[in-house]
Structures are given as C-alpha cells and as structure tokens.
Design goal:
This protein is α+β, with helices and mostly antiparallel strands. 51% of the residues lie in helices and 21% in strands. The protein has two domains: 14-91; 96-215, Alpha-Beta Plaits, CATH 3.30.70. It contains four helices and four strands.
Length: 216
C-alpha cells in the first residue's frame, strides 16, 4: 500500500528569510530617515519659498507705498501749517503775560488809568468724548477753542475820559488776539466844579469783562 502525503509549500524558508529580512529592515530604516529628515526639509523649503514669494510681492509694492508715504507726509505738513495758521488767527503769537503787557501799553498810550486787571479763569482745549451727549443737551462748545489755544477771562477796572476810552477800545479790537467783550459797565465819577475842567481828570469809571484767546 502506497501512502501519498501532500507537499507543503513553505512560503518563508530560511533562504527567503535571509534575503527578505535585510530588505524589510533597510526599507524601514529608509522610511524613518525619510520622515525624519526629508519631510521637514521639504516643509521648511516650502515655507522659505512662500516667504520669498511674499517678500517679492512686498518689494514690488514698495514704490507705491513710498509714493503713498510721501503723499501722506505732504498732507500732514499742509495740515500742520493750516493748524498753525488757525491758531495764529485766533490767538496771535502771544500768551496771557504778553497780552497784559500790551494791554498796559495801549492803556498808557490812551491815558487810561487802570485800577485793577484780574484774571478770572482760563480754559484750554480738551478733546471731548461726549459730543453726542452735548448735542442732546444742546451744549455748544467754544468753537474758537482749538488745540494749542487757551481762553483767558479778565476783569478790568479803569478810569478814563470818554474819548480816550473810545480810542482804547478801538485799538484793543485791532490786536492780533481775538478779544470778546462780555460785559461792560460805565459809572460817572462826580467831581467838584473847580477841577472839572482839568484835562487829567478821568470822569468815567469802567468795568470791562473780556475773553482773550492766547497761545498756551
């Protein structure tokens, strides 16, 4: 009796394992090296390329940006010049001390006798953050009070003759500062008959409240 036993085909034999195992290990090492070095370098290279591309775009736009910068600078210079002119139109080139000195000169020139010159208050320009509320409450801010300008309120008490007073007020209106006359009162000074005709006698007592806009 003859026994037939099936032949087994061994897929992995020592000979095949000796060939395949080094190949698998080599492939695995190659994959690890590729993922460790090649992919990061590829990603880094792409990032550099994108940065270079963005840089080239910015460089190409640089002439336009420089042109816009020059235009903005020219407009800024023009605005500053206009601002300075507005400040000079409102306040002139003098501050309160200079104005009071000028006031004394004008008074002496027109035979005005000052009893007192009292600064009452001063207000400077402040940016408002409640313009809507001011509009609702119908609060009108001082339109002449701009940045770089200060408003001074003065109380003047003086003695003068009528014609000298007129000359004084006219010359006061011609000053470079904007001057607003807010209150004006006159009182007759009584004198006896013997000295009434003397030229040096001032027959009017004047109280004058003014607002002066000057430089800070």
């Amino acid at each position: 009796m003859v026994n037939f036993s099936p032949k087994r085909n061994n897929l992995i034999t020592p000979e095949r394992a000796a060939i395949l195992l080094p190949s698998i290990i080599s492939s695995l090492i190659a994959f690890i090296l590729f993922t460790t070095f090649s992919i990061p370098k590829y990603v880094s290279s792409n990032m550099v390329k994108n940065e270079l591309k963005q840089f080239k775009i910015k460089v190409s736009k640089l002439p336009d940006l420089q042109k816009q910068s020059r235009i903005i600078s020219e407009k800024l210079v023009k605005l500053n010049s206009q601002k300075s002119k507005i400040i000079e139109l409102i306040s002139g080139t003098t501050n309160l001390e200079t104005f009071i000195s000028r006031l004394g000169y004008i008074g002496n020139k027109n035979n005005i006798e000052f009893n007192s010159i009292k600064p009452i208050s001063s207000i400077k320009f402040v940016e408002t953050e409640n313009s809507e509320i001011q509009d609702e409450l119908n609060i009108n801010p001082d339109e002449l009070l701009v940045e770089g300008v200060k408003k001074y309120n003065l109380d003047l008490n003086l003695n003068a003759k009528y014609l000298d007073l007129l000359s004084f007020l006219k010359e006061l209106e011609l000053q470079e500062n904007i001057i607003l006359f807010e209150d004006f009162t006159l009182e007759k000074i009584e004198t006896n008959e013997e000295i009434k005709s003397q030229d040096e006698i001032k027959d009017l007592k004047v109280n004058l409240k003014i607002a002066v806009y000057g430089k800070i």
